[in-house]
Amino acid sequence: MTTTGVKRVLSIQSHVVHGYVGNKVATFPLQLLGFDVDPLNSVQFSNHTGYNCFKGPISTEKELANIFEGLEENKLLGHYSHLLTGYIGNPLFLRQVGEILRRIRIANPDLIYVCDPVMGDNGSMYVPKELLPVYRDEIIPLADIVTPNQYEVELLTGKEVRSEAAVWEAMDWFHERKIKTVVISSSDLGQPGILRAFLSQMNGPRLAIDIPKQGDKDLFFTGTGDLFASLFLAHSHASGDVTEAFEKTIATLQAVIRRTVEQMPGQRSSGSVQAWERELKLIQSKSEIEHPKVVLKAQRLN
């Protein structure tokens, strides 16, 4: 049974006890924007991996299948309007996600799948390399929307992305696999101190937004890609206008980062900023999530 008009996300990604990444950073914004969220955790860690240490179990594909069977036997699959996936550290678990998607789409052929292919950043992978071919050959072609970063695009396409011409070639690689909307959530292709995000819709607009980097030049935040994917899911569902969805997603992300930087205890050099001090100030940004103020406008490039 498909329940029309329902906004409910099955979100399969990481969970941390302390901090905001994975399901911890995705659930609250989606709920504020009107979605019921059913988190299904790929790992349960004490904190994200940017700390000195992290502890906790990694879920297996058998555990995933067992939980999903409970949803299926209770005839709940038709209640999902969206599937969202993020950090997964086990290739067999990821392959099981493909089977889950197929079964949900039997119950609801209109399901939208938003895939954030979390594999690495800044030139290095932080998941087993065996995940790459599963994403590339089995999972990505099933997606409606993908939100990789620049490095993940390079991994998937097998080509360097060092120019805007290469960005659009990479976008076409995804579109050739029938993916309707591709968003590169961040790239270093902007001017100094500027990140540049890109969006391409099959038979639709090609867009870019320049994003001023906040804080010290070496300061970085964990969980921003997870937050981006959840926000874009919500805003793209609310509006048929991908330009509006793109702008609102960036606006909210910038507002959360701005608040995080402002609430850091002093402006020290980035090397002395502790991991806990860089945790996104998500709850404190409730109003900005509910009512994003668009300042950075998208450029249409086609």
Strand content: 15-25%
Distance from N terminus to C terminus (CA atoms, Å) equals: 41 Å
What is the strand tally? 11
Overall geometry comes to globular
From the structure above, extract its key features.
302 residues, alpha/beta, nine-stranded mixed sheet, 11 strands, Ribokinase-like
Describe this structure in words.
By secondary structure, the protein is an alpha/beta fold. It has one domain: 3-Layer(aba) Sandwich (UDP-N-acetylmuramoyl-L-alanine:D-glutamate ligase), CATH 3.40.1190. Helix content is 37%, strand content 18%. The protein contains nine helices and eleven strands. Strands 2-1-3-4-7-8-9-10-11 form a nine-stranded mixed sheet, sandwiched between helices. It has a two-stranded antiparallel sheet with strand order 5-6. α3 (91-107) links the parallel β3 (82-85) and β4. α2 (61-73) packs parallel to α3 (91-107), α3 runs parallel beside α4 (131-139) and α7 packs antiparallel against α8. It is globular, with a radius of gyration of 18 Å. The model has no long low-confidence stretch (mean pLDDT 93).
Summarize the structure.
The protein has helices spanning 22-32, 61-73, 91-107, 131-139, 150-157, 164-175, 224-238, 242-262, 286-290, and strands spanning 8-16, 36-45, 82-85, 112-115, 120-121, 124-125, 145-146, 181-184, 194-201, 206-212, 299-300. The chain is of the alpha/beta class and 302 residues long. Its EC number is 2.7.1.35.
